[in-house]
From TrEMBL, chain A:
This is AP complex subunit sigma. CDD domains: AP4_sigma (cd14832). Transmembrane segments: none annotated. Its main location: membrane. It is found in: Endomembrane system. Keywords: Membrane, Protein transport, Transport. GO terms for cellular component: cytoplasm; endomembrane system. SUPFAM superfamilies: SNARE-like. The keyword Protein transport applies. One of its GO terms (biological process) is intracellular protein transport. InterPro entries: AP_complex_ssu (IPR016635), AP_mu_sigma_su (IPR022775), Longin-like_dom_sf (IPR011012). Belongs to the adaptor complexes small subunit family. The gene is LOC120251199.
Automatic annotation (TrEMBL), chain B:
It comes from the Eukaryota. Signal peptide: none annotated. This is AP-1 complex subunit gamma. The gene is LOC120278975. Residues 761-878 form the GAE domain. It comes from Dioscorea cayennensis subsp. rotundata. Residues 701-742 are annotated as: Disordered. Keywords: Cytoplasmic vesicle, Golgi apparatus, Membrane, Protein transport, Transport. The lineage of its organism: Eukaryota, Viridiplantae, Streptophyta, Embryophyta, Tracheophyta. It is found in: Cytoplasmic vesicle, Clathrin-coated vesicle membrane; Golgi apparatus. One of its GO terms (biological process) is intracellular protein transport.
Length: 143, 881
């Protein structure tokens, strides 16, 4: 499967964006988010960006007050996932212009659209920022 | 106009939620919004459907239930307006739980959209299908997806490819339809299509060997070409990541090559050049480059690479390992684990660096490194490595100690060169991190000590010393208390002093002091205290002058609020007070614990923990605890031992156990070979003798006993149809093979409930339920080798003169039983016993042999369209199910 979920939380540990590529019940999600957020946010900056949790790994990266957490299978390339997170942030930057927490909160559906263009069923589909953003820009233009 | 439909704007709702100071306020806001949305849904409000769904997605993200919005998604998807459709699909993907009916409803919309002329709508449908499709949808829509794989638009192609991945994961049979198109995708230029195509090929390789062979033939060249193109490509701004063109594509292709090259020398040979190029040319000063190198190394390790290439890969890992960046070191450790199976020598060279990583400040790195060190240990390096690890144990962080201790103990147990070293190291671990040591570890230590008669003196003295310095380490205290109880005189008299051992002077009352301290220590738990009590009792026999003091200590515990301790102290008090004559024989040293049995049990089966528990219990409860049959109890421990033995070896051992038991019981029997009936009988008899079935310790005896009977009877007796009460005569006629069981069975006469649990017996059918209108009979079958599983064939007969329709049979079982109902043969039951319905139930009794099966049943049906309900309980299952 590769990527199991993409999660965006702020410094307080509140979820700001979540996409899961395997089915979890609401309770499972909440428990999982609580556990991994606690684990990841407690780590210092010079520690490595990978945390093993249950039977998978969480790769995380911090941008100012936002944490991007990506849950991946054990045989996934962790370094590549770090690059993927960065690509996601750059894509959001290009669209929102220096993206911040509020941009994502108030344009949640756009953030989802971008992520949907990039990841499908846990696999990376597109890494070209322009290709990712074209459908969204088209929609903005028409409405 | 409906008062709710105006509602708040999405923005306002988010603001309101953000303004909440407490979780309760937030819940209130969300509840209000949800109510408004529900109202809007029931009004079938059109205008704000879009906005409501956006709100629901936000609410869902906060972790509140939003299932009521699912149908709204479907309505939006069916809308012609693109933005509505867009958000409908998004909602579908986010809000959907795995409810089949919603999925069924969406299939049709998806089919329409897949055939839409607008490429974005097709893309949306593909994306949704790729994220949520079920096996059923996969079958329905696979032809559409196959067609779209041939589309000219790259955006559709890439999504169709990923959609195909989902389809073949759900329905692997469809894999062959996708092999050809998948191979075709690798010839494309568009990176999105390539990356999706490569992933599809990788998944196909996993799905079937046929596909793997096909792709190996047709795609090896293609994947090599993609890798060459992308790694030699000039600067491409849209795919550039810190100077490297599309590292994601690099990595996916390398993964595919690993699948193709694994176990195939020819394919691997083709790949050699390009892999060498990537491994040498890729920049390693940026993360993206390292990601590629990492994947490349993994591929080299995975395929049948030349030794030169492997050296190259190991060198890259060496470089990674010495990198300052923790991320890089982490992946290096991760990779070395995998490399270990390929080239252990090369990994051994990095031993000292890896050992340093165990001491890293980063928990993730420590964990990886520890796993790796564990792999690296062998007979030659175990001593220095263990020393390093134990030294580190002293300074390591609290939360790491548990993992570390478990690994150290495991290493010590596995590779110890001799018992002295083993005992020494274990004592170090116990005194350093005794609170983290698992029970089976210190149980094993006690077994070893009990077997090493020349080291017992040394051990008990070392433990005494260790106890002075670390009285708070629970498992150290337990081992020490046990050893002092058993070998107290060796402690006082300095028996068996080893060369170089420091002499120590301990008086009898010193020994009692430490045990008393353990009993009284605030951190001691009930097990430790109970063990201390036994130890004290034993000391009272070893050191007669201290008896009076020990009696006082025990008297003090008689007031304990813990039942177990209270009972023990009252019993022990009675022994000291009233049974001086039998005390010394009662409190003799424990017989040597059988090491081989213990090891086998530990390694043996899934019930490893169970047996460890048993050993623990036996260790702590080995001395008499129960006065009424105290003497018989004294034999209980060896008996359990024997029964355990027999449970490990099948019939032969069981017969020897029988003989022993017979001896014990004074039954003069000719020796018998594998007479399963007799052994069962005897153990049952024994149970009776010991009046088993009340206190916890006795239950403990029961467990192995049942085990024995099930194994022991596996042999010769084919058709004992488990009569509820067995008489010798009946048995003899039914199982002529069982050699001369009568003498014992005479003894057994009158023992009423004995259960026979044969491996593969036949059971009589029963009438499970009977009323004026309905009769249910159960017939049982068991598969050989699975005594827990019973197939029950239920047949239902209609006793009335009306036909039953919508016939439904339901059953409920206790927690320890698992029930699986197959569909019934029909749901119409014709009148007056003409024909019947049959239904198969499969029952797994997880406590087979200990608890009998029971079942509640409920039967619902309709007579002349009138609902009827009948209920009942089935208690008459044959024994042994």
């Amino acid at each position: 499967m590769g990527i199991r979920f993409v999660l965006l939380v702020n410094k307080q540990g509140q979820t700001r964006l979540a996409q899961y590529y395997e089915y979890l019940t609401l309770d499972e999600r909440r428990a999982l988010e609580g556990e991994i957020v606690r684990k990841c946010l407690a780590r210092t900056e010079h520690q490595c960006s990978f945390v093993e949790h249950r039977n998978y790994k969480v790769v995380y990266r911090r941008y100012a007050s936002l944490f991007f957490l990506v849950g991946v299978d054990n045989d996934e390339n962790e370094l590549a996932i770090l690059e993927f997170i960065h690509l996601l942030v750059e894509t959001m930057d290009r669209h929102f212009g220096n993206v911040c927490e509020l941009d994502i909160m108030f344009h949640l559906e756009k953030a989802h659209f971008m992520l949907e263009e990039m990841v499908m069923n846990g696999c990376i589909v597109e890494t070209n920022k322009q290709n990712i953003l074209t459908p969204i820009q088209l929609m903005d233009k028409t409405s | 106009m409906n008062p709710f439909s105006s509602g708040t704007r999405l923005r306002d709702m988010i603001r309101a939620i953000r303004a909440c100071k407490t979780a309760a306020e937030e819940r209130a806001v969300v509840r209000k919004e949800c109510a408004a949305i529900r109202a809007a849904i029931s009004e079938n409000d059109q205008d704000y459907r879009h906005r409501n769904l956006a709100k629901l997605m936000f609410i869902h993200m906060l972790g509140y239930p939003t299932h009521f919005g699912q149908m709204e998604c479907l309505k939006l998807i069916a809308s012609a307006d693109f933005p509505e459709k867009r958000i409908g699909y998004l909602g579908l993907m986010l809000l959907l739980d795995e409810r089949q009916e919603v999925l069924m409803l969406v299939t049709n919309s998806l089919k329409q959209d897949l055939n839409h002329s607008n490429q974005f709508i097709v893309g949306l449908a593909l994306c949704a299908l790729g994220n949520i499709c079920s096996a059923e949808m996969a079958r329905d829509l696979a032809p559409e997806v196959e067609r779209l794989l041939q589309s000219r638009d790259p955006n559709i192609k890439k999504k169709a490819a990923l959609c195909s991945i989902r389809i073949i994961r759900k329905v692997p049979d469809l894999a062959e339809n996708f092999m050809g198109p998948a191979a075709g995708l690798l010839k494309e230029k568009h990176h999105g299509v390539l990356i999706a195509g490569v992933q599809l090929c990788t998944d196909l390789c996993k799905a079937s060997t046929e596909a793997l062979q096909y792709l190996r033939k047709n795609c090896t060249d293609g994947s090599i070409r993609i890798l060459r193109d992308v790694s030699n490509s000039p600067y491409a701004p849209e795919y550039d990541i810190s100077g490297i063109t599309d590292p994601f594509l690099h990595i996916r292709v390398l993964k595919l090559m690993r699948m193709l090259g694994q176990g195939d020398a020819d394919a691997s040979e083709y790949m050699n050049d390009i892999l060498a190029q990537v491994a040498t040319k890729t920049e390693s000063n940026k993360n993206a480059g390292n990601a590629i190198l990492y994947e490349c190394v993994e591929t080299i390790m995975g395929i049948e690479a030349t030794s030169g290439l492997r050296v190259l890969a190991i060198n890259i890992l060496g470089r990674f390992l010495s990198n300052r960046d923790n991320n890089i070191r982490y992946v290096a450790l991760n990779m070395l684990m995998k490399a270990f199976t390929v080239d252990p020598q090369a990994v051994q060279r990095h031993r000292s660096t890896i050992l340093e990583c165990v001491k890293d400040s980063d928990a993730s790195i420590r964990k990886r490194a520890l796993e790796l060190v564990y792999l690296l240990v062998n007979e030659t390096n175990v001593q220095p490595l263990t020393k390093e690890l134990i030294d580190y144990l002293e300074v390591s962080e609290q939360e790491f100690k548990e993992d570390l201790t478990a690994k150290i103990c495991s290493i010590i147990e596995k590779y110890s060169p001799d018992k002295l070293w083993y005992i020494d190291q274990m004592l170090k671990v116990l005194s350093e991190a005794g609170n983290y040591v698992k029970d089976d570890v210190w149980h094993a230590l006690i077994v070893v000590v009990s077997n090493a008669s020349d080291l017992q003196g040394y051990t008990v003295r070392s433990l005494y010393r260790a106890l002075q310095s670390s009285p708070e380490q629970e498992s150290l205290v337990r081992v020490a208390v046990w050893c002092i109880g058993e070998y107290g005189e060796m402690l006082v008299n300095n028996v068996g002093v080893l060369d170089g051992e420091e002499p120590i002077t301990v008086t009898e009352s010193d020994a009692v002091d430490v045990v008393e301290a353990a009993l009284r220590h605030h951190s001691s738990d009930i097990t430790t205290r109970a063990m201390s009590l036994i130890s004290l009792l034993k000391l009272s026999s070893r050191f007669p002058p201290t008896t009076e003091r020990i009696r006082e200590i025990i008297t003090h515990e008689k007031g304990s609020l813990l039942l177990e301790l209270q009972q023990r102290s009252i019993e022990f008090h009675a022994i000291i007070q009233k049974h001086q004559n039998i005390k010394s024989s009662l409190l003799e040293r424990m017989p040597v614990l059988d090491e081989s049995t213990y090891v086998r049990k530990k390694v043996g089966s899934s019930d490893a923990t169970f047996s460890a528990d048993k050993t623990g219990q036996r260790v702590s409860a080995g001395t008499p605890v129960n006065i009424p049959n105290g003497v018989a109890k004294q034999q209980a421990a060896p008996l359990v031992d024997l029964l355990d033995l027999s449970s490990d070896d099948v019939p032969v051992a069981s017969s020897s156990a029988t003989d022993f038991l017979n001896d014990l019981l004074g039954v003069d029997l000719p020796s018998q070979s594998s007479s399963g009936v007799v052994s069962t009988g005897t153990t049952d008899l024994l149970m009776d003798l010991l009046s088993i079935g009340t206190s916890p310790v006795q239950n403990d005896l029961l467990a192995p006993d049942n085990h024995t009977s099930s194994v022991a009877t596996s042999g010769k007796i084919p058709s004992v149809s488990s009569p509820p009460s067995v008489k010798g005569v009946a048995l003899e006629t039914k199982s002529p093979q069982a050699p001369g069981p009568s003498p014992v069975l005479d003894l057994l006469d009158g023992l009423s409930d004995m259960s026979f649990s044969d491996e593969n017996p036949t059971f009589p059918s029963i009438t499970a339920f009977q009323s004026n209108s309905l009769k249910i009979t159960f017939t049982f079958t068991k598969q050989p080798g699975k005594p827990q599983v019973t197939q029950i064939k239920a047949s239902f007969t209609n006793m009335s003169s009306n036909t039953y329709t919508d016939f439904l049979f339901q059953a409920a079982v206790p927690k320890f039983v698992q029930l699986h109902l197959d569909p019934a043969s029909s749901n119409i039951l014709s009148a007056s016993g003409n024909g019947s319905i049959t239904q198969t139930l499969s029952v797994t009794n997880t406590q087979h042999g200990q608890k009998a099966l029971a079942m509640r049943i409920r039967i619902a049906y309709k007579v002349n369209n009138q609902d009827m309900l009948e209920q009942g309980q089935v208690n008459n299952f044959p024994q042994g199910l």
